[in-house]
Amino acid sequence: MLFELLSLEIMQAGLSWQTVLNKRQALKAAFENFDYRTVQMLDSQLPQLLTNDKIIRNRRKILAIISNARIIDSLETQNKSFNQYLWDFIKWTPIQHHYQSHKDLPRTDQTARQISNQMKSDGFKFTGPVVVYSFMQAAGLVNDHEISCYRYKEITQTHE
């Protein structure tokens, strides 16, 4: 699931979320239900992916997803899951922000820049700080719900 979230964040870069959500099922089909073990071998299907009008056909993004699948698989050969890799950055405790308004939300932060730099160093592609911060939000590593939001209250109570 984390690989799917990362891949969708990569696809969303520069586009609206509505575009990604409208194409999500087709992306899941094209990327083998985001099974990184299978996705890492999709190089030979690149021409078909680039002509599939049901998905986002950005060559760099598609190649990044395939490459990232390989990196995630290589983590497992080192006895480390992608889940462990990510949560180790924040010491297994979600970052709790206390924003009054969505206008206060940053596009990125220092933690996302740190994770982005490490991911790039480890070979991940298309993982700039803005993509990583959005991914952190989607994966639950950071709670950016407004304090008046019911989800903020549920999440903060769960992690206190």
TrEMBL record:
Signal peptide: none
Listed SUPFAM superfamilies: DNA-glycosylase
InterPro entries referenced in this protein's UniProt entry, alphabetically: Adenine_glyco, DNA-3mA_glycosylase, DNA_glycosylase
Single GO molecular function: DNA-3-methyladenine glycosylase activity
Organism domain of life: Bacteria
Pfam family of the protein (one): Adenine_glyco
Keywords for the protein's UniProt record, in alphabetical order: Metal-binding, Plasmid, Zinc
Binding annotation for Zn(2+): H145, C149
Biological-process GO terms, alphabetical: base-excision repair
Matches recorded under Gene3D superfamilies: Hypothetical protein, domain 2 (1.10.340.30)
Protein name: DNA-3-methyladenine glycosylase I-like
Species, as recorded: Lacticaseibacillus paracasei subsp. paracasei
